């Protein structure tokens, strides 16, 4: 079915607004939803649906819609006004003050904003007595008093709304939070109250709503918003500004190529826009939907990513890349149980293996004099995996194992050359399809093939499903497992896969006694910075006067629960700061930046306490000089990247859960001998942070001694680690059937 034209949608919108203005709210809702069913990004329909929800007193739904409008189109000043009015309408005064202060920081201005500010000066906490009104909008382009992108908010803690005594301009909608997504972004049907307010009715808070304010103000930060942000999906937390509606219909034959280039450079917002355009022009091409899903995940829009990958499966039901991407996405879903995740993996693995009933590798043969072990993955370069593989391979040079490497990426650097020098055999396979790679591995007579991909993009699990080697082992990538019966073993440890989880994996679990990781800092190989930059320095809190928490992670790992918990940490440690480094984070006016700032502001964390930075690979270790304590995410842990922070003296607080993906940092801390930083609950997580931050002299002593402790731990004993890996692989080989 072809998409409706702009004139068609405009006519539908005018009809819906006519119903809205006439007080025919059921018909108006039906009209707005019909528009959203045809064009999920239609901003006016989405915004007006939020206004309608507010009028019929569905407050949670209204706040969710209007907040989404603001996050998606922060350049429109009226969206700030609409959201503020909604907060005022239901008595969320502290939060409204925070949002107003946020907008002021970035240049939000105009008479309606001044009116709100005047009311705030008069209202210490009571409800406004004559608030302004919000009316359905007709055209986002009609806005005249709107801040530019650089005028969007970054957060503040002490702001509360006042009512608007003067009428304001019509609010104009933004891109919806995907009406085809989950229930957290799709509002329930809106029922009309006994007395229907018209769109022009003033949105004055009632006495009941005003009376609820003290209780809401005294609630925990995680409950600051009535729509329970702790359970909000990442897609609701991060919504990049879409392309203007008129630009979206333009034909651009280069959209796909430009989107892929932006995706490769981690310019996720640009990639999202171009690939959305490509999906309208080349919607029958699987490649478009696969790439669009990756761009959405880069922005934390997980529901939209899932939708894109499901569309790829609709076009090509046997497409493994899309199926595997959905499994990878499942790791990021806090509500998904370990048992449910395992069921998905096992089902997908069985379906993939069914394409090749017979294994491709020859019948298990006698091993070569030196057991030939092949490692295949994309991380044979400046990548966290290389910090484990290089010391291991160098130590295995004197063992009975012969290391072969299959470099499945185009990136080469000085670390790649070091890895190559440590191998008996090296193959460049990034340009090979699965059939050619399978033939190469069989020709090389690999005895044991080790997968380092997991379910990451571009993985080779379809090669493992055919059984390219007599014995196949998973390690490092995607701790939830492959789902393949022909992936015979997983190399792991007791902290990552504790006893009792065997039924959740097709692989048998071989637990290394001293942990599944070793670590070698590789800054000296790349020589990107002088060696003095990598010396441990004193805790920055000693000279700054405040504690700085920090994290470097993908936006997809910043779900609502993580943000809420980190906000609680900041509240528990007075005047503390949070420094976040994320791939794909653009300038301070980017939608991702604004969405993050808004999320923290809603939990009472002001912009002066939040530092958002784009990820800089050259600063992986030296960023430690700027933070006192590192915070880990969940349900996916930051994993190996925590090693460099620990090596630089920075404590890492982690909260492992039931699923293996959440336990990587716990494994590192167990091996290091620092279990006191492993939290057993969210309350414990906050307690650990507060304890570390409350004694700066002790925090500094910890910082200055942590590298020494790490150097004497199993993490920094590659020969010992190599002996355990060799014993494991020899044991697996001996146990093969």
TrEMBL record:
Entry EC no(s): 2.4.1.255
Chain ranges of the O-GlcNAc transferase C-terminal domain: 366-514, 560-723
InterPro entries named in the record: Glycosyltr_41/O-GlcNAc_trsf, OGT/SEC/SPY_C, TPR-like_helical_dom_sf, TPR_2, TPR_rpt
Keywords, in A-Z order: Glycosyltransferase, Repeat, TPR repeat, Transferase
Coiled-coil positions: none
SUPFAM superfamilies: TPR-like (SSF48452)
GO molecular function, one term: protein O-acetylglucosaminyltransferase activity
Annotated Low complexity bias: 134-161, 175-187, 195-217
Transmembrane segments: none
Positions of region (Disordered): 125-249
Enzyme class: transferase
Annotated pathway: Protein modification; protein glycosylation
TPR repeat ranges, renumbered to this chain: 43-76, 286-319
Family: Belongs to the glycosyltransferase 41 family. O-GlcNAc transferase subfamily.
Protein name: protein O-GlcNAc transferase
């Amino acid at each position: 079915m072809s998409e409706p034209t702009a004139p068609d949608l405009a006519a539908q919108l005018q009809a819906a607004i006519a119903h809205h203005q006439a007080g025919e709210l059921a018909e108006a809702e039906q009209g707005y939803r019909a528009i959203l069913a045809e064009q999920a990004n239609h901003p006016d329909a989405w915004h007006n649906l939020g206004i309608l929800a507010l009028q019929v007193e569905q407050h949670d739904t209204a706040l969710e819609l209007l907040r989404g409008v603001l996050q998606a189109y922060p350049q429109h000043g009226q969206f700030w006004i609409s959201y503020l009015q909604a907060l005022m309408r239901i008595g969320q005064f502290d939060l409204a003050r925070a949002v107003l202060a946020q907008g002021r920081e970035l240049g939000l201005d105009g008479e309606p904003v001044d009116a709100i500010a005047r009311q705030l000066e008069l209202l210490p906490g009571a409800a406004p007595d004559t608030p302004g009104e919000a009316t359905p909008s007709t055209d986002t382009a009609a806005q005249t008093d709107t801040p530019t992108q650089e005028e969007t908010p970054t957060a503040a803690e002490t702001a509360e709304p006042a009512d608007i005594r003067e009428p304001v301009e019509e609010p104009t909608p933004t891109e919806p939070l995907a009406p085809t997504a989950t229930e957290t972004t799709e509002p329930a049907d809106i029922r009309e109250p006994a007395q229907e307010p018209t769109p022009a009715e003033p949105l004055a808070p009632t006495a009941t709503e005003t009376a609820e304010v003290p209780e809401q103000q005294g609630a925990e930060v995680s409950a600051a918003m009535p729509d329970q942000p702790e359970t909000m999906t990442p897609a609701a937390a991060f919504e990049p500004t879409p392309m203007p509606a008129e630009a979206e219909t333009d034909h651009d034959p280069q959209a796909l190529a430009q989107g892929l280039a932006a995706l490769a450079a981690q310019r996720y917002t640009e990639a999202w826009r171009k690939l959305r355009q490509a999906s309208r022009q080349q919607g029958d091409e699987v490649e478009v939907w696969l790439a669009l899903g990756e761009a959405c995940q880069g922005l934390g829009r997980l529901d939209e990513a899932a939708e894109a990958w499901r569309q790829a499966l609709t076009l090509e039901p046997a497409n493994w890349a899309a199926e595997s991407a959905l499994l990878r996405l499942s790791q990021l879903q806090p509500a998904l149980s370990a048992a449910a995740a395992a069921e998905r993996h096992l089902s997908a693995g069985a379906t993939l293996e069914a394409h090749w009933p017979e294994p491709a590798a020859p019948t298990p043969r006698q091993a070569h004099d030196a057991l030939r072990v092949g490692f295949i993955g994309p991380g044979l370069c400046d990548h966290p995996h290389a910090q484990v593989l290089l010391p291991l391979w160098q130590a295995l040079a004197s063992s009975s194992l012969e290391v072969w490497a299959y470099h499945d990426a185009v990136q080469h650097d000085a670390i790649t050359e070091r890895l190559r020098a440590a191998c008996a055999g090296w193959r460049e396979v990034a340009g090979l399809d699965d059939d050619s790679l399978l033939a190469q591995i069989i020709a090389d007579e690999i005895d044991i093939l080790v997968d380092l991909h997991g379910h990451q993009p571009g993985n080779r699990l379809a090669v493992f499903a055919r059984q390219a080697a007599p014995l196949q082992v998973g390690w490092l990538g995607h701790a939830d497992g492959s789902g393949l019966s022909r992936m015979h073993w997983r190399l792991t440890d007791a902290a990552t896969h504790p006893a009792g989880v065997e039924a959740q994996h097709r692989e048998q679990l071989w637990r290394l006694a001293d942990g599944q990781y070793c670590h070698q800092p590789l800054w000296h190989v790349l020589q990107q910075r002088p060696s003095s930059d990598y010396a441990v320095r004193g805790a920055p809190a000693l000279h700054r006067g405040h504690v700085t928490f920090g994290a470097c992670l993908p936006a997809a790992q910043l779900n609502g629960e993580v943000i809420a918990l980190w906000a609680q940490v900041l509240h528990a440690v007075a005047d503390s700061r949070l420094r976040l480094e994320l791939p794909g984070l653009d300038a301070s006016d980017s939608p991702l930046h604004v969405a993050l700032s808004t999320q923290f502001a809603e939990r009472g964390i002001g912009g002066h306490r939040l530092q958002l930075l784009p990820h800089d690979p050259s600063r992986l270790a030296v960023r430690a000089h700027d933070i006192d304590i590192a915070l880990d995410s969940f349900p996916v842990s930051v994993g190996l990247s925590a090693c460099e922070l620990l090596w630089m003296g920075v404590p890492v607080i982690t909260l492992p859960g039931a699923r293996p993906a959440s336990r990587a940092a716990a494994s590192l801390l167990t091996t290091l001998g620092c279990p006191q930083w492993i939290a057993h609950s969210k309350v414990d997580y906050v307690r650990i942070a507060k304890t570390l931050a409350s004694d700066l002299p002790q925090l500094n002593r910890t910082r200055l001694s942590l590298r020494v402790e790490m150097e004497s731990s199993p993490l920094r004993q590659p020969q010992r680690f190599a002996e355990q890996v060799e014993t494991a692989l020899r044991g697996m080989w001996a146990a093969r059937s």
